[in-house]
Amino acid sequence: MAGSLVAHKRTIQSRTKVKTGCATCRIRKIKCDENKPFCKKCTDTSRTCDGYESPFRLVTSQATGTSSSPQRTPAQIASQDVDLLNRYFSIKTMFDVKLACDDEARQVLQASLTDLPIQHAVSSLKVLREDLQTSRGVPGSVAQPTANHDYGLQKYCRALRGLASTLSSPDSDALRSTLLCCQVFISIEQVRGNYAAMAQHIIQGLGIMRENRARPNFVVAANELVPARRDQLPFLDVFVVKLFAAPCKYVDPPASTAVHQQPIEIRRDGLRTIAPDKRKGLTDIAESTLEFLDEVSRVESAGDALELLSEKASLLGSLGLWLAGLELDNAENRVLTELISVLFMRFFHQILKTVLLGVLDSSPEGSAQLQIENERLQGIASEVGERVKDYFRTVGGTAKWPNGGM
Fold it and tell me: What UniProt keywords apply to this chain's record, in alphabetical order (predicted)?
């Protein structure tokens, strides 16, 4: 079954040259040999192969019906396991940052008791995160590969293959497994420093939520509230916003001879921070976005949905003002090359915008705008990934992770 899915995928991809092969070869616009897990075109030229397209797109527009999973008696999940997975979800926790994803960790661990792809994904994240810590924070995409790193990638590949097989006939259980796997895959790619692949998982996962109507939708032309089709699906957007909204410790390379840089200040712990700190504005919008998503999940009338559409427009307006402020600061300070921490804020901003645009709107116009923003998100993620790799190649073994990861 998995073999037939791969054959079907290659048939679709062969229609346009730019969409075949690994992410690295697609960016370079060259033909990829599609060797797994890493193509020889990259390895033979000492490049980092960023892997292949996420399998999540296979479920898009395929799921129908409204069946829900039968209730099961949950097994006991140890609190220390929840705490451990909650920490492993984000590399920020390497800097003593608290991540508020206990509920998401518990859901993943509960599902992993009976779901083999999720088991492999969790095992991969655990091994790769521990390998990152032993390598003093240098991601596997830059560091010399270790036996543990290779084992973690093998587990990752097994999770991807298992999920592709599960999605051959997606039902509610398969979609739930997909979104839970997606949470772990996002964290895996963050650990690896492959932000382009991370963004791809985010985009495909949010697309699954949207097309399978994980939340109620509002049809403006008919003034009609359409109830959720799959009310048991995990809210991937909430997980992603939490991941990006967790506090950061900005760390950038020591100042060079360049004179046109963002103003900075030196803290007592030696870390360099942006001044003024524009990240607080984003975290405030993120908190409001989480409240908005919760309200959308519980909306029951068209009138309430109209009010929420107004709130959505206000949040998008706040994001626009924040970005305009950042561009103004750059212009006033004659910034030529943004700090990595600023790029991560742009990544955060684009995540919030993409999440908001996909809520309460399934119109053709909304879908077209969302596609544009998804492409922007992918572009920012690719730039972040390249800058992070350059950073670690420059500072070598003395590196600290730039800005706590995101």
Answer: DNA-binding, Metal-binding, Nucleus, Transcription, Transcription regulation, Zinc
